[in-house]
Amino acid sequence: MNKTTKIPREGYYQAAETWANDQQEALRASRKVAWIVATAAVVIALFEAIALIILMPLKTVVPYTLLVDRNTGFVETLKPLDAATIAPDKALTQSFLVQYVIARESFDSDALQSNYRKTSLWSADPARSEYVSSVQYSNPDSPLARLPKSTVISTRVKSISPLGGNAALVRFETQRRDAGGQAKPPQAWVSIIRYRFSGEPMQREDRFVNPLGFQVLRYRRDAEALAPADPVVVVPPGAVVIPQGSAPTSGIRSYPDTVPQRQPTRRRSDGIEVTL
User: Which pTM was predicted?
Assistant: First the structure.
């Protein structure tokens, strides 16, 4: 009877020992995986710390200065702390654009022929045909037709912004001075210019002025600032508004806005003048 009872106990103890061993193995495997994950996380954190230490000196705070035009609202970024650097080809293109705008927009009887020659030489159709037709004396909008010879219009370029694809936006202003040195307020303009560099043959003296064959294909000029609107008059409640041009209701006489012109007359043979 004792032998029969001993056999199940030994099997129970063996099963219990096997289960305990399995639990220990599972715990060891779980700890191993946890240590691997923790080690990988520590290594990644160390790499991130090293990268931050290396890149930290490269991070700088750059101040930006914005220049806003009060008249037009144009915003331009200035970098006063950095030395002005510009690529040679970009500087040459900007020089051509400035010279072209000054020659086309300026008016001076002494430099009229040279400005016309430069603008015509540095233009290609349709910009050339538009310019030639705009300066003809038969055109009523031509400066030759509407401005006296003593008038001088000077041009000052304010900025040049590349638009890509051989196009640029040029901001400039013109100022008119009449005889006696009386200057009028400057006018702000903006022009969109599309240009190219052609290798077309030209005369030697022209090649000295325009060595790369700079030519403007399209030229469009618009006013940068809109004309000021008429002021709005606020009428208080109960006030009487008299329309402009109507006769007042009081006894004050109203006068016309323009001076009356004298009517032409003709004297007949009998000495009586007749109004035509």
Answer: 0.55
Measured CA to CA, the distance from residue 204 to residue 113 in angstroms comes to 19
Residue 122 and residue 150 in contact, taking contact as beta carbons nearer than 8 Å: no
- The answer to whether 187 and 115 are in contact (CB under 8 A) is no
**Structural domain boundaries in the chain:** 9-57, 88-223
Q: What is the pLDDT of residues 62-87, one digit of tens each?
A: 666 777 766 666 676 666 655 555 55
CATH topology of domain 88-223: Nuclear Transport Factor 2; Chain: A, (3.10.450)
pLDDT (tens digit per residue) in 75-119: 766 666 555 555 558 888 899 999 999 999 999 888 888 899 899
Find the angle CA(214)-CA(220)-CA(224) to the nearest 5 degrees. Answer: 120
Q: 194, 167 in Cβ contact below 8 A? A: yes
